[in-house]
UniProtKB/TrEMBL annotation:
Positions of the UniProt region annotated as Disordered: 1-24
InterPro entries: Beta-barrel_TonB, Beta-barrel_TonB_sf, TonB-dep_rcpt-like, TonB_sidphr_rcpt
Family in the record: Belongs to the TonB-dependent receptor family.
Name of protein: TonB-dependent siderophore receptor
A GO molecular function held by the record: siderophore uptake transmembrane transporter activity
Residue ranges of domain TonB-dependent receptor-like beta-barrel in the record: 11-416
Cellular component GO terms, alphabetical: cell outer membrane
Pfam families: TonB_dep_Rec_b-barrel
Membrane association type: Multi-pass membrane protein
CDD domains for this protein: ligand_gated_channel
Record's keyword terms, sorted: Cell outer membrane, Ion transport, Iron, Iron transport, Membrane, Receptor, Signal, TonB box, Transmembrane, Transmembrane beta strand, Transport
Organism: Marinobacter adhaerens
Biological processes, Gene Ontology terms: siderophore transport
Places the protein is found: Cell outer membrane
Length: 446
């Protein structure tokens, strides 16, 4: 069943008719459907010419198809119980071919050991998208009666896009005594073309960019390793905006300073501060389902993680993150200075798993943990133009695994205590988070 949208009144906000049940279906039985099909084939080739030279080539051909039919909530009438609805059908396909060619060289210059990576990669992506949008009948969310006919919806988007991108890159990792320094650069050329089948218009653009990265770390004898890094990224895309112009590539840059501490092979502690800025990033408008290009967003924060193994059998992972993320530039002035949507300020987790070794229970693993997701802000605004707050939540997870030779069996439960909570909010709607979910897995190691 697709994710359900509910009015804010009855989820995040009070409703005189009471809370809306999180299992209430807002679509039409027999109509709402979601299907995703993925296929891929490829290979990884490596040839070691000698101890200093290695050749690699990785190729992947893939296809993704997504068919989505849904009737969803668009508003709430004055009686606080009748929702208005719309119909949205989307049929999309992505065909892609990606190739990466690498030459790795290792060399010694004085006391410095170099690992040089030279590469050329290319990707060719074809994207097809057809979307229908129209009205649907109203529904009493507290006492629903289904079966109303679903009217035909007009085709409002029919696009075929193509992206070709070629990049060359060079990286040198240098080790001198306890120092490790990494320097790299990349140059990309990209061409995108989008055909609007509804108008017959074609929009195209060509872009090129140089991006770099650099980092350095020092390994102390006591296990501490402070580090610093800087990196840039360039991400072209297909598609056009409401004016029919092609989207600009997304760019980003990030600074990071941190320290790692590894006193032994069973323990690793990391602490890092980061500052990430993204420009021209794409988001999906929850009302129109159209892609929109935003201005600039900045995220700064602190990340901590500790991993250790106790008593040779108990694996423990603890983590915490603090993120201060806000929209720093936007076409809509109301959004500037507001928190970046769906980015919790605080997150924390604690996970432990005991692996039995020897005896009748050899191969059995029992795991349990707790996750805290702090408050976040949805893509909606209150009367005073402040972003809408989504409350925090604490969830419990568990797992049982069993290894039998080359076979691994697993049973994983998320939100074990079946907590009801609101996960997102946008416009006049909200969605509940996933209730208790149990999945099984079987893996065979060759």
């Amino acid at each position: 069943q697709p994710s359900q949208r509910y009015p804010l009144q009855g989820t995040l906000e009070p409703n005189p008719n009471g809370p809306i049940p999180d299992n209430r279906f807002t679509g039409e039985p027999g109509y709402d459907a979601y299907e995703r099909r993925e296929s891929a084939i490829g290979y990884e080739f490596e040839h070691r010419i000698n101890d200093q030279i290695v050749l690699r080539q990785n190729v992947r051909d893939y296809r993704n198809d997504v068919d989505d039919q849904t009737i969803y909530t668009t508003g709430l009438l004055a009686d606080q119980r009748t929702i208005t609805r719309s119909r949205f059908d989307s049929f999309g396909r992505i065909d892609g071919l990606a190739m990466d060619n690498q030459l790795q060289l290792t060399a010694q210059t004085g006391s410095a050991k170099h690992t040089v990576l030279v590469g050329l990669d290319h990707q060719d992506i074809d994207v097809s998208s057809r979307q229908f949008f129209g009205a649907a009948s109203n529904l009493d969310i507290y006492d629903p009666v289904y079966g109303a006919p679903v009217p035909d919806a007009p085709l409002f988007k029919d696009e075929d896009g193509q992206l070709k991108q070629t990049g060359i890159y060079l990286q040198d990792q240098i080790r001198v005594d306890r120092w490790t320094v990494s320097l790299g650069g990349r140059y990309d050329v990209a061409r995108s073309e989008t055909l609007n089948n509804l108008t017959g218009a074609t929009a195209s653009r060509e872009d090129d960019a140089f991006t770099g990265r650099a980092g350095a770390s020092y390994q102390f004898a006591n296990g501490f390793a402070p580090y610093v890094s800087y990196m840039e990224s360039f991400l072209p895309t297909t598609g056009i905006n409401a004016a029919g112009n092609p989207f600009e590539p997304e760019t980003a840059h990030q600074y990071e300073v941190g320290v790692k501490y590894q006193p032994n092979t069973d323990t690793l502690v990391t602490l890092a501060w980061f500052d990430l800025t993204r420009e021209d990033y794409l988001t999906t408008n929850p009302s129109t389902f159209a892609n929109e290009q935003k201005g600039e967003a900045n995220s700064q924060g602190l990340e901590m993680e500790a991993r250790t193994r106790l008593f040779h059998a108990l694996d423990v992972i603890a983590s915490y993150s603090y993120t201060d993320a806000e929209i720093t530039s936007a076409s809509n002035p109301v959004e500037e200075g507001e928190p970046l949507e769906y980015t919790p300020e605080h997150e924390a987790a604690l996970w432990g798993k005991y692996n039995f070794r020897g005896g009748m229970l050899h191969g059995l693993g029992l795991g349990a943990g707790v996750r805290y997701i702090g408050k976040s802000f949805g893509a909606a605004f209150n009367a005073d133009n402040s972003a809408l707050e989504v409350p925090d939540v604490t969830l419990v997870d568990a797992a049982i695994t069993y290894d039998i030779g080359q076979v691994s069996l697993g049973l994983h439960a998320q939100n074990l205590l079946d907590e009801q909570y609101v996960a997102t909010a946008f416009d006049s709607s909200g969605t509940y988070g996933t209730r208790r979910e149990v999945t099984g897995s079987v893996a065979y190691r060759f």
